[in-house]
Amino acid sequence: MLEAEQLARSTGALATVRMIFIPGTHYAWTLLRITLPALMIVIGTIQKIHAGIIYEITPYNGTILVWAGLTQMNPVVLDSIPTSTMAVYFLAWTPNLLSVPQFIWTLPPTDRCTNNSVTYIQPGGVEIARLWSKDLNQTLLQNGYFDLADVIQIYNAPAIVTEFDELTDDLIFQTDECELFTPLSNDAIYICIKPAEFGTAVIGWTICPSAHYWAGTCVSNVSWTDEICQATTVATYTLFSTTSYYNKTLSIINVIETSQREILPIDINGFKAT
Predict the structure, then answer these.
(1) Kindly report the CA angle at 122 between 107 and 272, in degrees rounded to 5?
(2) In this structure, is the dihedral angle defined by the CA atoms of residues 126, 241, 194 and 164, taken in order, positive or negative?
(3) C-beta of residue 231 within 8 angstroms of C-beta of residue 171
(4) How many CB atoms are located within 10 Å of the residue 21 CB?
């Protein structure tokens, strides 16, 4: 009995593989038919990994003058804010601020970062921007300024950059550089902070272990503060940036640095005051 094999566009995968073992001029075409799908998958994967989104902004209807951006906080203002108000603010924002795209964006680290660093920029957001006038209650979200726009872009506004870098050396804090905080009954956190080079700061902390918490001894027995469990180097910078926000969600979709980063020395005493 004779068995015929056909190599065509309609030839199935199994039949194509069988053709490899049959010598003839069709061998190159058979090999190509088998490897081409896998090759396309590899090329597509590489392109997907290296592909990026390019935003092209087309301005229309001119520009609007605004007060916008984020600058260094004046610690003196803290004296006028009730402690209870600050406690509610930090309780609401501290756990998830870095995951809120309306206010946070990542940037490449500076040359000073050497060990698993991460850098965030806070350009201020659209909601705090105010129209350039004597009445600072007028925002960009009023009067339908952007009803027909997909993107809101704020040009050349000040921003704050915060950079975290893991420590590579053993860390030692002095007693006067640390303080025990008891935000909740039966609970406590031990925080240490000291200045470092280039105006940065080293922050370390330890949370009261579960055994002490359940025994109610977080404050009466502070032996758990002998070891600092977590630590990081923190650096802050100021710069100017052009930030694009998606109109539907007010989320940041792109940030362009328009000036060099300038180190913003961390005020250790001001940090402790907060």
Answers:
(1) 110
(2) positive
(3) yes
(4) 8
